[in-house]
Amino acid sequence: MLKLVLKGGRIIDPAQKIDKVGDVLIEDGVIAKVGGDIDAAGAEVFDARGLVVAPGFIDMHAHLREPGQEAKEDFASGTRAAAAGGFTTVCTMPNTRPAVDDAVLVNGLIRRAELERLVNVKIIGAVTKGQEGKELAEVGDMLQAGAVALSDDGRHVANAKILRTGFEYAGMFGGLIISHAEEASLVEDGFMHEGAVSAMLGLKGRPAVAEDIAVGRDVMLAEYTGGRLHVAHVSTAGAVELIRRAKARGVKVTAEATPHHLTLTDEAVIGYDPATKVNPPLRSQEHVDALVAGLKDGTVDCIATDHAPHAFEEKDVEFRYAPSGFTGLETAVGVVLTGLYHSGKLTLPEVIEKLAAAPARVLGLEAGSLKAGAAADVTVLDPAAEWTVDSAKFYTRGKCTPFEGKRLKGRAVATIVGGRFVMKDGEVCG
Ligand SMILES: [Zn+2]
């Protein structure tokens, strides 16, 4: 029997309301015992004193770029980046070439992931064929094939009738629809958040109301159909308030926010660094404050990275011409611990809830907790470790990040998937 004991760490498992110092015993890839002083005779021992032992983090929003855009990323490079960043499960979005819009593609990717993955990979299918917004994709077939959710991420499903039908079909399988909520007519040609900074920089803006309108309509359709809606990368105060009110009246809506929207403002764009260009755009401080308040009170359930790698030469152009998005898997934990925990906005159990228990609950995954008998997916954190972001050391192919050169406090120091170390002391194993 393969035994591993994580010795003397602060065990935080929000799903079981555990926060105590003790040992964790892993046997044959499964959590066997949590807490107390465990006899480590015959076991591999990991000294976790001074560290935090948490359920493995789940990123429910990443772009691993398979199939078709392997120059940007693939399952091998993307899951190494996930392991390096402390994630044990990563969900990949379907805006690929071709878009993942049928069961054959979902099946193929599940098999690819089994061969190539270093961490668990879950597949998200498209809502519409080719993500073109014109015709519903094979929603039921994809869910039955193992897709964990459906999304046209990158675009909003503009046609309300199609989204209504999507909720109805997905609902038959208990399926979740993840919305990239931006009203297209208001954001076309916009490069950044519309406000004082965009006016100063002379860049056309993407107004916050574009997100508010899209979230409002999607919430109404979820309410009308009884469907399950998850709002991706919420970034506006208005959207947070719409989701808060919808939850209060029982609409099946959940939401995520990204580390960058929670910690950066549109002032990061001053200097026209293409690494700060993202959709939805970095917003002004009032929106950031509302987003953090929403995260704190549970309106925003999860933190997700929206890891979006691009080839260096694509992003290394004038701001207007650069594609939107940047990598996030290897900076997320450090950014969140620095910007939300060390600043006193969230407690460590709250951070871990948002990164592990909540995404597992939203997606219906058997994960996100250190329950005895669960697969031993574990993230070990050193909240006090100080480090500097250096994209040259990233495992992802995408080297673009708005956090380049930033000094952060806190990081994952070990990642365990199925009882096996996939990252230790910052080095990916395997
Ligand atoms: Zn998106």
Structure characterization notes:
This is Dihydroorotase. Pfam families: DHOase (PF12890). InterPro entries: DHOase, DHOase/Allantoinase_Hydrolase, DHOase_cat, Dihydroorotase_CS, Metal-dep_hydrolase_composite, Metal_Hydrolase. It is a single chain. With about 425 residues, the chain is an alpha/beta fold. It folds into 2 domains: about 5-55 and about 375-430, Urease, subunit C, domain 1; about 55-365, TIM Barrel (Alpha-Beta Barrel), CATH 3.20.20. It is built from 13 helices and 19 strands. It has helices at about 75-85, 105-115, 140-145, 160-170, 185, 195-200, 210-225, 235-250, 260-265, 285-295, 310-315, 330-340, 350-365; strands at about 5-15, 20-25, 30-35, 45, 50-55, 55-60, 85-90, 120-125, 150, 175-180, 190-195, 205, 230, 255, 300-305, 380-390, 405-415, 420-425, 425-430. Strands 1, 2, 3, 4, 5, 16, 17, 18 and 19 form a 9-stranded mixed sheet that branches. Strands 6-7-8-9-10-13-14-15 form an 8-stranded parallel sheet. Strand 1 (about 5-15) and strand 2 (about 20-25) form a beta hairpin. Helix 4 packs across helix 7, helix 7 runs parallel beside helix 8 (about 235-250) and helix 8 packs parallel to helix 10. The longest helix has 18 residues, at about 210-225. It is globular and about 65 Å long. The two termini are about 20 Å apart. The mean pLDDT is about 95. Zinc ion (ZN) binds near residues 153 and 154. Zinc ion (ZN) binds near residues 154 and 180.
Jot down its keywords.
binds zinc ion, alpha/beta, TIM Barrel, 8-stranded parallel β-sheet, DHOase/Allantoinase_Hydrolase, 430 residues, Metal-dep_hydrolase_composite, 9-stranded mixed β-sheet, Urease, subunit C, domain 1, EC 3.5.2.3
